[in-house]
Design brief:
single chain; alpha+beta; Helix Hairpins
């Protein structure tokens, strides 16, 4: 079609030259053929422009230069013809360059508008399927291609396709698959821009989903903690009343048979255990809700263990209990009340899961900026078949340890049975003893 248009321009120039010859003279008609070559170059490219220029020079020589209807020319006229041809080709080349620049600017504007439209559509996308549809439609409308999108960042391009990674700040979110062909730099820039925008949109959707899930979990945890706190608080009052009534009944049954008093004490022990369980549940809910503020201070490791043993003296009556405290651990930086609560729960756990005559061993040792407080028993050990599930007491111990920035380690004792170790960080040095005590 461009070549046909160049021929049409050439024929029109010849016709117009015959009509204007008597008005302007033959010497001025060369400008008309020059104009035809420039118009062909500006509209249809360098090739049609060269064709129009060469045919125009030949037609001007054949029809209008003496001798007419012949290609024979004098030497001066030959120089003029070559000069005319050179001017026509040069101006046609400039016109073609301007045409290409204008065409490039137009395509650049279209791609910029398409990029802006795709970016605007991505801002409202709420699923990866919408991102895929927006990117495919934008490329189809701009480059007349049928691309595909894979959300697998390791996907390889099938035969006949090229893969462009959809990179995002955190990681590559997939690949843009486009039919393989020789793309220009502007087309490749557009495809890479769309791929990058797609990766950003997918990453935004991913983090929105993560934030939504986290918010739901937070709300669920907050609701669970509120329910547990309310339930535990409401249960403590009746349990305290039941325990007081059973203990009073046991005192009133001083002259009754031992069997009756034994049953009464069993009821009192179970009620006391239930009361401790509710207390642990309430404390756990407060810790998880952030309602407990640590009151850390320097505490003696031996006093922490003695305090826990005194609270469970009746439960541990008759057991052999060994206490080993390293000389390198004079003081422990912690919340003494909470750590003592951990030790009480560990003693309860050991007492419930070991025979009454088996011994217990409590020990304290120091490491690099940590203190380890452990309890070893001679029972059956922790049941690995529970897949990490644990009771409320151990859950509370773990929560207290984490609130201190430490951990609760559970496993097997070297001597058989179970081992539970409270690991507490010690990021400061204990105070020096007074000079008077040091001199003594």
């Amino acid at each position: 079609m461009p070549w046909f248009n160049a021929l049409a321009i050439f024929v029109g120039a010849i016709v117009l030259s015959f009509l204007m010859e008597r008005i302007v003279g033959a010497s001025q008609l060369s400008l008309l053929f020059l104009t035809a070559a420039v118009v062909a170059s500006a509209n249809w490219g360098r090739g049609p422009g060269i064709l129009a220029a060469v045919l125009g020079v030949l037609a001007y020589d054949y029809f209008f230069l003496p001798p007419r209807f012949s290609f024979r020319v004098s030497e001066p006229e030959l120089v003029s013809l070559f000069l005319l041809l050179g001017i026509a080709l040069f101006i046609g080349h400039l016109a073609d360059g301007l045409r290409q620049q204008a065409e490039s600017a137009r395509r650049g504007q279209e791609r910029a508008q398409a990029t802006a439209r795709i970016s605007r559509d991505f801002s409202g996308a709420i699923s990866m399927e919408q991102v895929s549809a927006i990117a495919v439609d934008g490329i189809r409308r701009t480059l007349a291609l049928e691309p595909r999108i894979s959300f697998d960042s390791l996907a390889t391009a099938p035969q006949g396709y090229s893969a462009i990674p959809m990179r995002a700040p955190r990681k590559t979110r997939g690949v843009l698959l486009v039919p393989a062909r020789n793309f220009g730099s502007e087309e490749m820039d557009f495809l890479e821009t769309v791929a990058s925008l797609s990766g950003l949109a997918i990453e935004r959707i991913h983090f929105v989903e993560v934030a939504g899930d986290a918010l739901l979990r937070m709300q669920g945890e907050r609701m669970r903690s509120r329910i547990l706190s309310t339930l535990s608080h409401d249960l403590r009052t009746p349990l305290t009343g039941i325990l007081a009534g059973v203990e009073s009944l046991d005192a009133d049954l001083g002259g009754m048979e031992d069997r009756v008093r034994s049953k009464t004490r069993e009821v009192a022990a179970e009620v006391r255990r239930m009361s401790d369980l509710v207390g642990n549940l309430l404390e756990l809910s407060r810790l998880q809700a952030g309602g407990v503020k640590l009151r850390q201070d320097w505490n003696s490791a031996e006093e922490l263990i003695d305090g826990a043993l005194r609270q469970r003296e009746s439960l541990l009556n008759g057991r052999e209990i060994t206490i080993q405290v390293s000389d390198r651990v004079p003081l422990v930086w912690c919340d003494g009340v909470l750590v003592e609560r951990v030790l009480v729960n560990l003693l309860d756990n050991a007492a419930r899961h070991t025979p009454p005559e088996t011994p217990l061993r409590m020990w304290v040792e120091s490491g690099e900026k940590i203190v380890r407080i452990g309890l070893d028993d001679r029972g059956v050990g922790f049941d690995e078949s529970k897949n990490g599930s644990e009771g409320i007491g151990l859950s509370l111990c773990r929560a207290i340890a984490e609130s201190h920035g430490g951990t609760l380690e559970t496993g097997c004792s070297p001597h058989g049975g179970a081992r539970a170790v409270l690991v507490l960080p010690q990021d400061r040095k204990p105070p020096e003893p007074p000079e008077e005590e040091a001199s003594e």
